[in-house]
Design a protein that fits this description.
- By secondary structure, the protein is α+β, with helices and mostly antiparallel strands.
- It has 17 helices and 14 strands.
- A hairpin with a 4-residue loop joins strand 10 and strand 11.
- The longest helix is centred in the first third of the chain and has 22 residues.
- It starts with a helix and ends in a 9-residue tail after the last strand.
Length: 407
Amino acid sequence: MFTSVRLLSQQLYQPCFEAPEDLLDWMGAMQAQDYTKSKWAMGLRLQEGTLSRVHQAYEAGTIVRTHVLRPTWHVVAGKDIRWMLKLTSGRTRAALDSWVRSMGIPESLCSRCNGLLEKILSGQALTKQELAKRLAKENLPVEEKLMSYLLSCAETERIICSGPDRDGKATFALLEERVAPVPELTREESYALLALKYFRSHSPATLADFNWWSGLSLTEARKAIGLIRDQLLEESFGDTVFYVHESCGRSCRKEEVVHLKIKIMAISYHVVRRPDMRKDAPEGATLFYGQVRAGETVSYTELCELISLISTASKGDVSCVIDGLIQVMKQELLKGSVVHLGEFGKYRMVAGSRGVEEESDFNASLFKKGRIVFTPGTELQETRSKLSFRKLDVKTVEKECDLPHAL
């Protein structure tokens, strides 16, 4: 079933690996904004995972944390860091540079900082705070956000990466001193290897899933999938194509995966007989209409658990974030702000009022109770064009209705 395949491929059930570097070789990359919790996410996926094993891997440089794939932290196997950065750093750097241009910061600052970092970090690893002090001594004082940008740029240019833990804190070190060189891959080899790592650890998944995770352009993502097509089980449902890597297919029959996708994605309906409301319809004429049946309710607890399975956050973490979001949204909506939630959509408060004949007679008490308007984001809107329907095996229902029906 779908859940079984995902849990197996994510190494959350019956994990296959003992060492963190072997796990990351399988996964490709794991998101790691929260340094401490990302260690737990790795430990949970190991046969006998402990924090000390993860710390040892960081110490040895067999795993490293850096900005790769997308403009956010990921932890990857040391042997993969160079080719992954070479393949994906262009788009990551473009996103970072867009921010720095909006702040009016000269791009030459990045080059100067890179030179200083190579000098300062030679033979040692330092925390972010220690680096800021050393840069200030070199007449390059930087505030928090700019420091984050400069370090991210140095990572994308393969100058620095994570160093060994120091009392639970992350450090930075020179990449060439942390990770031994490995043979370079061609661009096509890199595309194929990235796709392989993703689909064997995230099946079942779609082109859109891989496109978002990898940070590649849509054209590049299609090309990468094409390079490993012979390793993928492919099934279409509606307009959506799902891929399951062959290594996952051995653990779950192909037809079971497809069956569950149908169960999850198809909207159930039954047929009802209602009056024909067309203008030229004969008196007493009827037509058959499809009526959608509500599916299963996903509870708040179940939603938090599902999100935790595809992220490094725990169910409790997800719940805390959502609860915090509600509180912040309440404050912003009461101020009249339009609250944007990325691809989720946006919320705004609107309110009508009673009218008066004279402008001077109008006051705030004439406003009616406000209502919250939600506008779905592009990604949610797109789901409307991907609807699939499944007829329920029930008898036709005869139902009186005095509402017109669009044809």
